[in-house]
Specification:
The strands form two sheets. Strands 4-3-2-1-9-8-5 form a seven-stranded antiparallel beta sheet. Strands 6-7 form a two-stranded antiparallel sheet. The chain starts with a helix and ends with a helix. It is built from three helices and nine strands; from the N terminus they run ααβββββββββα.
Length: about 200
């Protein structure tokens, strides 16, 4: 046998003889796992408390309006995702009161009367046309970041607060039509309001 073959056989023998060391300190390992689970539970609890605290700070926000019966024929409709609401212009200042912070599926309908937001598994709400302040394409809201223009953001007034609500259609190409329709509604509503005040 050549020296190379002998050396290879020796390495194979050594490899088969080596075994991993047995775990003998089970108590320390179990304590470490329990500690990790408790730490995760504590972080989750802190997050829940922060959510509740934010909701308590926003308890002056009035109840959300609901859609009136007999809405006129819709101008636009989409299905997609509701990504949350924030104070207008402050995309990280999430609003959690009245479940506005809950992400969900959404069915969005725009009529001459306003914007109907139907959210399976969360609270539905309605934005009357006179409270719509505009719409734009954006890329992020309240912890959700998408590609540029991937989010439809609708600005509306509720009580004395301006709110941005973020939506993403299942067909993102629809967003531009929504921006145009809501902004044109807002302009005509503003014109009518100004005319009535004169």
């Amino acid at each position: 046998m050549t020296p190379a073959v002998i050396q290879l056989a020796h390495k194979a023998t050594v490899a088969t003889e080596q075994k991993s060391a047995e775990v003998t300190d089970w108590g320390a390992r179990i304590a470490w796992v329990i500690g990790l689970i408790l730490f995760i539970a504590f972080v989750y609890w802190l997050m829940r408390q922060g959510w509740k605290w934010r909701g308590a700070l926003q308890n002056d926000l009035p109840e959300l309006p609901v859609a009136p019966g007999g809405l006129p024929e819709h101008r636009l409709a989409l299905t997609g995702r509701y990504h949350g609401s924030t104070t207008a212009g402050q995309w990280l200042d999430r609003i959690v009161a009245h479940s506005l912070g809950v992400r969900s599926r959404v069915e969005l309908t725009l009529t001459e009367a306003g914007l109907d937001v139907v959210r399976p598994g969360a609270t539905d709400f309605f934005v009357p046309a006179v409270q719509l302040r505009g719409a734009r394409l954006d890329k992020g809201i309240a912890g959700k970041v998408l590609t540029e223009g991937g989010l439809l953001v609708v600005t509306w007034a509720h009580g004395d607060k301006l709110i941005d609500s973020g939506f993403r259609s299942d067909r993102a190409a629809e967003h531009a039509a929504w921006v145009e329709a809501i902004n044109s509604m807002n302009q005509s509503t503003t014109t009518m309001t100004e005319g009535a005040e004169r």
